[in-house]
What we know:
This protein is an alpha+beta fold. Among the domains are: 14-29 and 682-863, Jelly Rolls, CATH 2.60.120.260; 34-110 and 117-181 and 587-668, no CATH class; 359-483, Jelly Rolls (Sandwich); 868-1003, Trefoil (Acidic Fibroblast Growth Factor, subunit A) (Trefoil), CATH 2.80.10.50. It contains 17 helices and 56 strands. Strand 25 and strand 26 form a beta hairpin. Helix 11 (243-263) packs antiparallel against helix 12. It is globular. The model is unreliable at 1-34 (pLDDT under 50).
Amino acid sequence: MRSTHPRRRTLPAALSLALVASLAWGVTEAQSDTPARAAGASVLDEDGILAAHGLDEPQWYKDNIPFLDTPDTKINDVYYYRWSTHKRALRYTVPGTGYISTEYDQPVWYSRGDSYSGLVDAAGYHILDGRWLRDRTYTDDYLEYWLRGSGVGSNRGFSEWVASAAYQRYLATGDATQLKAYLPQFIALYKKWDSNFTQNITVNGAATTDDLYFQSPLSDATEYTETSMRSTDWFGGGLGYRPTINSYMYAAAQAISKIATMTGDTTTANDYAAKAAALKAGVQNSLWDPQRQFFMHVYNNHSSNSGIAWTRTTWREAMGFAPWAFGLPDPQYSVAWKQLTDPQRFAGAYGPYTLERVHDFEAEQATVSRANIRTASSASNGQYVGQIDFSDSHVTFTVNAPGAGTYPVNIYYANATGATSTHNLYVNGATTPMTVSYPVTGAWGSFSNSQVVTVQVPMKAGANTLKFMKGATGYAELDRITANPYFNYQAYPATQNFDDTNCCHWNGPSWPFATSATLTGLANLLQDYPAQSHVTKQTYNTLLSQFAALQYKNGKPYIAEAANGDTGEWVYDAVNFSEHYNHSSFVDLVLSGLLGIKPQADNTLVLKPLVPDGWNYFALQNLPYHGHTYTIVWDRDGTRYNNGSGLQIFQDGTRIHQSASLGNTIVQVAAPVAPAATPELENVAANAWNADQEWFKGWDNRTYTQKFPKAFASYTNTVSNGKRCRSANNPRCVEAYDLPLKATNGYIRYDRTPDDRWTNAGSPNSTDHLGVDFGYQRPVNQVKIYTYDDGQNVRVPVSFDVQYLSGGTWQSVPNQVKTPVTPVANKPNEVKFSTVTTSQLRVVFTPQAGTYVGVTELESWYPVQAPVKIVNKNSNLELGIAGASPSFGAAATQQAADTSLNHQWQLTPAEGGYYKIFNRNSGLVLGINGASTTAGATALQWGDTLTADHLWQVVDVGGGYVKLVNKNSGMALGINNMSTAAGAAAIQWNDSGTDDQRWKLVTAS
């Protein structure tokens, strides 16, 4: 039911028993906070579609996603599959953080240990796809995580475009409330990149006035590229000014400017508009290569760039298309897109490569001796070299190679002698030449792509000289040579070991992450730019279809990390690691790209479809937009859906547009509607941190101490599910077991691989239980059990009973209402009951005869309670943040009473009976400056980074007052010098029992 998908921390959870009693906080059933599904305009059989695609928990999809039907079966299949990968990557972490989106199905060792395995490099895609979910909770929580929560410590660990994606998400929801509140955090995140900012960069030896951001390919999520392999550090080197990071920062500056305009902050709006304009100019001036007509990486002077500093890279990389994904380039740069469909550049059978297959080396730009440079309109750069007539005539090219080997070199020439001609080719000063033979062509000075010969050239690692000299027979003119020794170099494992030993080379393989950016940019080019002759909507259709065809394995939809672009084989596909890899977009490519839904800030719905002209139909049912629900139907003659012909658009079930043709369309729509404020829930059983640390322990032998809540069971399967392997440089494997803590790790999945479940397989007991130890007495009134049923030995139980620990005795909770009444397999089983207060909760299962039971997730939801004011007994003033600041590090002070959000706090349960105390104005958590343990250290607000100084014990001291004791220091929150003056600082101090250390928690009105 929808009530179990809560929004986070609008209200704090219940406190101690005494506090609950003193405040008399009630329990209210949560209600839906998302747009209602349209009652009319139903043209698709949603139940039939979900059944056909075999999706678990079909009700979740009916509650959340827009349903799609097109003539392209693979696009349909992958669309629903990618919603399933989005769902399976949604992870409920802990109360106070809520949901995040992860990339991998298992914990990631290179994420921060307290990050719940969140990685920021693909967060933009998670947000762009997630903006089309009806339930906004997931993306609301995710943005909070990156901007104010435990993701703050790693939100610039990779290149990111969170601000831009958040703005695009606002255009879809029409609700600017959260967006405007985050303006200080967007600015803070932007400024974090100052350390990577360089003024007046140098390009090819020439000083410029351009100021750009640099990034390593590795931190741009693209290690082992041609760019880094030219440096001395293939994995982490090759730092420079990249089209990607500068496009992201351009888009972030634009977003901040627009958000500031919405808040009335014209100074900030103008400042960031100027930053965006300067970045755009810098990218176009310095990263655009006028000869290669492409955006290129420019190396900085990092030590790994010895000998190549301040130069552009040699080969085009797919990242050169990224600027269009953010609308950066002016129209004249659109010529770059001619490279996309060229099979010698980026075009592959299963989508674009990450590196162009070959690169041009112009003869006239080589070292030319005793020969002449001529002009010709048919020459590739307008020039060529002729009259290579003498024994000492030569044209010498320099070609870099990543390692010793033999590489193909294509030579484009003209030979009008009437007979085969030859050149002597000396490689790296060899005394014995290779012979290159040139068949007859037409006229001298006339060239075409068909006038080419290919030779296999032995090269060494590094720079190679290829000297072409007059041969024994005839003459030939040289236009150019093409080669790329870096293309797919060491990219594919000789043997697929199903770990990531050979991962990850982004020097050729087809990579969904890059393909998503390319397709986003292509859609923007076709929808928002003047017409050009290089690509068409058919190009988009072809590439999207190729991308869909790529996302299969063994005949079923599937995505891993990267594939062979020629064969479609997944090459980075580590078992229990890369499956269902959530690191790219597809949903948004269909909705905003193919169907052309372009969200707007005003009250319009804009369609700029890129569907093939031959499509007679498509339908999109129940699209959430601006708080309403839309259905868009194209049925050329009305025979597909029997609901009218042409293009029809329905708003909340009522038709608001109909036209005979399909094309760019602007429709006036209703004003945005914000979700109704409703009581909300938090999952107090979740503990993603424990599960991650347990995985890391098995992988690298780290030690950790479990935090509450702790999962436990009467019996757990003792047999390993097999080794789970992955690596950075060497294979590392752990045995995978059905542990109880996997049932509280925040993931809901029903497959055997990756394993994510508890089972009692092998148990001799007639019943077994799975439970949670909260570590303190807390109220609970709802449980959800997601059963795991493999159809063989682990089956849905016959029955189960929810029990709580009372005075050392286990008792069945009273008034259990189960939905459904009989347990169901691989679906949620919900139990609601009268509130009980307990330190432990468990579910006792009775299995089917001869089988065992399994659970993929055990949740315990409880209503979040009313916000409070924290009133000091000594001064009768209220705790707030100085200046109502939304910034990290702002001081907590006592202030005169008012009704502002700055004086309202939400207490959220954390481990061991402690609470996090969130300021409602800033969303930040109360902590101690520098995590100090010294008496007198000031209290302040900070992002929720899971440190102990952010945890507080609420201790009842009688008379309606409590003391707030910091976990890290053991000291009590008080007021400096026991002052009664407004503005006095809140500090920690040894518990002296004075009234300034006593606080009343008053329910905020």
